[in-house]
Amino acid sequence: MISGAGLRARIAGAAVGAAPCRLAFGCGAGGALDFARLMAQLAQVQTTQARYSEVRRVAVLQKPCQLSGTLRYERPALIEKRQILPFSEVIRVDGDWLTVEREARRDALRC
To answer: Does the predicted model carry a pTM greater than 0.70?
Structure first.
């Protein structure tokens, strides 16, 4: 079950995550994000890869957890998050397949 507070936090996180898109695609604070224009610009990307670094704060941990790895997109339908630190994990969406690899275990789910 998702609590109302958790749902509100997820929606707020999504809104914050969309802020770089608004800046990158020229939408001001008062302008609406034109979804069709955004999708047309994203359709021009054949493949891209970037390094990422993330800090997660978990209530039961004394210090924040730092994660890092790479993000990869290949047109038409591959998105991959390859985490290197603090442990190895690969989360991949390829078409209608979701695959999660951690340690010696691999789980796949067709959506």
So the answer is: no
74: phi then psi, degrees, rounded to nearest 5: -130, 125
Q: Which residue, among 65, 34, 35, 68, has the nearest Cα to 51 in the 3D structure?
A: 68
Rounded CA Rg of the chain: 17
Q: For the stretch 10-46, what's the b/e string if a residue is b when 16 or more beta carbons lie within 10 angstroms of its beta carbon?
A: eeeeeeeeeeeeeeeeebeeeeeeeeeebeeeeeeee
Q: Which residues pair with 53 in a beta bridge?
A: 68
Q: Which is higher by pLDDT, 38 or 98?
A: 98
- Interatomic CA distance for residues 39 and 42, integer angstroms: 5
81: helix, strand or coil? strand
Please name the helix (run of DSSP H) or strand (run of DSSP E) that holds residue 101, with its range, or none: strand 97-102
